Amino acid sequence: MSTIIQAQQLSKSFGRHQVLKELNFTIEAGEPIALIGPNGAGKTTLFSILCGFLAQDAGSIEIFGQKPGSDALSGKVSALPQDAMLDPNFSIGTQLTFYGQLQGMNKTTAIAETKRVLALVDLADYFSQKATVLSHGMRKRVAIAQALLGQPELVLLDEPTAGLDPVNALQVRQIIANLTSEATFMISSHNIFELERLCGTVLYLEHGKLVQQRSLQQGAVGYLNLQLENADAAQVLAVLRQLPGVHSVDNVQKNEFALHFDRELAPELDITRLGVLRAQGWQYRSLTQGRTLEQQLFAVANG
Amino acid sequence: MSTTSISRFCRNTWLITRFELFRLFGSPRGWFALAAFAVIWFLILRYPIFEASSALQQADTQAMLRSVFGMVGLYQLMAWPLPELIAYWLICLVLLPLAAIVTSADQTCSDRARGTLRFLTLRTSRDSIFFGRFLGQWLVQGLLIVISILATLGLALWRQHSLSFAAFEAALIMALNLMIVLAPFTALMAVCSVLVRSSKFAICLAIVGGGVVIGLISWAGWYFPDTLRLLQYVPGAQLPALLAGQGWSTLKEVTLPLAQTLVLLGLGRMALQGKSL
Prior knowledge:
The complex is a heterodimer of chains A (303) and B (277). Chain A has 303 residues and is of the alpha/beta class. Chain A has helices at 43-51, 92-102, 107-120, 136-147, 166-179, 192-198, 233-241, 269-280, 293-301, and strands at residues 3-14, 17-28, 33-36, 58-63, 77-80, 154-158, 184-189, 201-206, 209-215, 221-228, 246-253, 256-262, 284-289. Chain A starts with a strand and ends with a helix. Chain B has 277 residues and is mainly alpha-helical. Chain B has one domain (3-273). Helices cover 77% and strands 0% of the residues of chain B. The two termini of chain B are 24 Å apart. The A-B interface holds A 48, 51-55, 69, 71, 74-75, 77-79, 81, 83-87, 89-90, 95, 98-99, 101-104, 146 and B 5, 8-9, 12, 15-16, 19, 23, 27-29, 111, 114-116, 118-126, 274, 276-277.
């Protein structure tokens, strides 16, 4: 895998407020990368620096070995900037075609490419419409469409599903999932569950610091999450803790249990556990392999 | 800068320039602006230019104006071949710089406020955007000058049923001069547009900023008279010399406005490069 982003000692302040504090990270091409953090953590600032909209105060950052915003990255890196809007005086088709031409396409190719990306976000009928006639969700999808023009190698999406209804949000997730083989996506969001489904690597920012960077792959230690219909928590804990290979069982929420086990000692714990559930007459709602992204992040972030 | 970068810069700058022309001639908002332009120029042609040209045909009026303009150094103003062109020249040299400040105020500011500039900078350099927008505005002004001067010639043709070669030549000289006169004002608005986030604020900045600069120079001139020479370098400082000139010799005044344009564009480029989007 090749390195696409490399940041060293990256810092940025607005006045006295330091938004990014000496970030060091490397991103490889491949699976989508999640950028997670609470409000004010510095996610949008980091995105703005990656896009070349802002300059860092200290440190260095390179995308494909180039400075962000450099001419060599034109068409190679695309983005959905937060809150950016199209010009209300021109049709969506006119503007996206113009963007395509700026990326180096001729007019015929740019028109065809505009139609292709609008079809991808299910807005093919809006080629001749102005952005002012679109709803918030549709504008967001058009903004995503412009990020897919051409063949970008890195697509930066800042809050791609913020403000979208569940149907549109699902559609956006599907678009990203379908295109992950063609480009590397970097997605910032508050929605941890959404990122869990899409991303293979996570950057967790808090108060401008990179708290952790981790891959969401399974290790030798196994985790299972079990959500039951109404059950006696004490009884469940007692039964599950006796299963072979299980290190610990926690009642994380009402009717929800997290198992921590050794993969080598209990390679088929999920099957065993289904047998136990059946034997005890417990109905289950869900059975999930691995820790949730939330558990992974906050287990470390909270020590 | 490699050859590929230069050719990409030129290509994208031209694409942005063309899009500015399309903004005027290819969008409903542009058509509305053109309609407003046509109405304003109809009124200017019908009243100031038509009435002034009628008056200028009277021998006694001509003699009186020659002596009046002569007193203020504008000896050659009455020597332009058509009375319509004399009125047009006077009106344009006074009004067009102000019109350029208003019409070219929104080169990048509203796009920056809206975030549209972010979509553009992902695809092309800030230099292409800055120079493309400036060139687009300048060309739009050039086209409107050509249209208005052709309308003025049309008015003269309607009056006297023929036009001399000298009239066409004078029209060409005036159009070229006006283009050059407007260049520093358009570049000034390119700078102001980078500095603020709305066209109204850009206009205020240009007018108030210009006033403050002239005021400061005048104030400094009270104590250090040599500083008053700086007034010779503010945009539009060559206009009295243009009014006093005649024919192709007026083009000897191009150095100052072209130099002002280059300096202002350099400042604007630097400002945009350092600007957060």
